[in-house]
Structure formats: C-alpha cells, structure tokens
Amino acid sequence: MIDIDSSGPIWTVTLNRPDKANALTEDMLRELRDVAIAAKDARALILTGTGRVFSAGADLDAAKAGLATSPLWEELSGAIAALPGLTVAALNGTVAGGANGMVLACDLRIATPGTRFFYPVMKLGYLPQPSDPVRMAALIGPARTKLIMLAGQKIDADRALSFGLIDDIVTDGDVMTRAKALCDDTIAASQDTAHAIKAMCPSGG
C-alpha cells in the first residue's frame, strides 16, 4: 500500500490505497517513517498518492484502536523535516487529519486544483500531533491555523495558495512532473552545496 522508488537521486513515495482514500494503517505509517529515515541518502524526496485523495489521514478503525494518538505520526513528520535533501509534497488530492503532518514537514507543497485541506481532530476528540500546529502556524500564521484546527474550516487549493499553505497549483500538467522539475537544480548541484543551502533556510518548526 506504499510504493517506493529509490532507484535514482529522487526518491518517490506513493500512498497506494485509493479504495480507502489512502487512509493510513499502523503498518503504512511505520513503513512511511522507516522510508523517511532511510531517505537521508536521497538527493530529493517526493511524497504523492494515487487516486483523487492524497490521504484521508488515519484509517478509522485503526484510529479508534489507538492509531490516532500513536507517536508514529510525530516520528514520521520529524524524520521528513530532518532530511538534508529537498522534500516535496506532490498533492494529487485532498489532505485530511493526521496526513497533514507529513505534508507540513516537507520543504515544498504543490497541489492539483481540486485539493482541499482539513484537520478535524477536535471534532473527533483528539489532539493534533504537537509539531503540526507549529509548522502550520509558521506557514500561514496563528489565526489561520486556528481557522483550520479550531473552527474546522475546509480550505480549497486557491485559498491554501493565498494563505501560503501550498506553493503552487498545478493546472497545466501532471503534479508529479512538476514536482520532479522542482528537484532538477537540487540534484544537478553538488550534494554538499544543496544540503548547506537547505540548512541555512529557516525551517517550518
């Protein structure tokens, strides 16, 4: 349910459970974390999904069984944020709940026009992972973070772009093609230079 291509300088990780809106099970979450840790040797990492939804967050049954409060979410986003190479979330569709964490941890976020963002943890009686509000607020500010997390608003792609939650809407081609193009200069440069420049840039939290 996780497809991994680590054959070149750009590692591609694809959520592949489209019949369940790419909802994440414990095994999927653990595999994503392990891949993110291993990707320290990649020049760039792209996260994407199959179907019309990037991820609905935690699988509902798994969430009720304890996955909603698992430390794996924080371990995954932390591993992505710690990568020295460029990380890009190529969003093929809607991002919900805990799936926002891995997206917020990426350096860049691009999306299809139909992508929406929402984080209904409060409605479900859970807290967000600790780093998620911090990273979101670093991108869009505290009030807009509360708009999503406390007021429960669903944000469409146009609004997400205006907020700064995403960096581009891909209207003239495939989101993966655009994501790979964003990695071209990074993988063409020396690894030491690319890593040093990323280290100089402020993080999102």
Structure characterization notes:
- The protein has helices at 26-38, 60-64, 72-81, 99-104, 121-124, 131-140, 142-149, 157-163, 175-182, 184-188, 191-200; strands spanning 2-5, 10-15, 44-49, 53-55, 86-91, 94-96, 108-111, 116-118, 155-156, 168-169.
- The chain has 205 residues and is α/β, with parallel strands linked by helices.
- The protein has one domain (2-200): 2-enoyl-CoA Hydratase, Chain A, domain 1, CATH 3.90.226.10.
- The strands form 2 sheets. A 6-stranded mixed beta sheet has the order 1-2-3-5-7-10, with helices on both faces. The chain has a 4-stranded mixed beta sheet with strand order 4-6-8-9.
- α1 (26-38) packs parallel to α3 (72-81).
- The longest helix has 13 residues, at 26-38.
- The model has no long low-confidence stretch (mean pLDDT 96).
- Structural class call reads alpha/beta
| CATH architecture classification | Alpha-Beta Complex
Helix coverage percent of residues?
40-55%
Distance between the termini: 29 Å
How do the SSEs run, as a string of H and E?
Answer: EEHEEHHEEHEEHHHEHEHHH
- The CATH class, by name, is Alpha Beta
| Global Rg | 16 Å
**Can you identify the CATH superfamily?**
2-enoyl-CoA Hydratase, Chain A, domain 1
Strand order of the largest sheet: 1-2-3-5-7-10
Mean pLDDT: 96
Secondary structure tally, helices: 11
Binned strand content: 15-25%
Annotated CATH topology: 2-enoyl-CoA Hydratase, Chain A, domain 1
How does the overall form come out from the CA principal axes? globular
Question: How many domains is the backbone divided into?
Answer: 1
Number of strands: 10
Low-confidence stretches: none
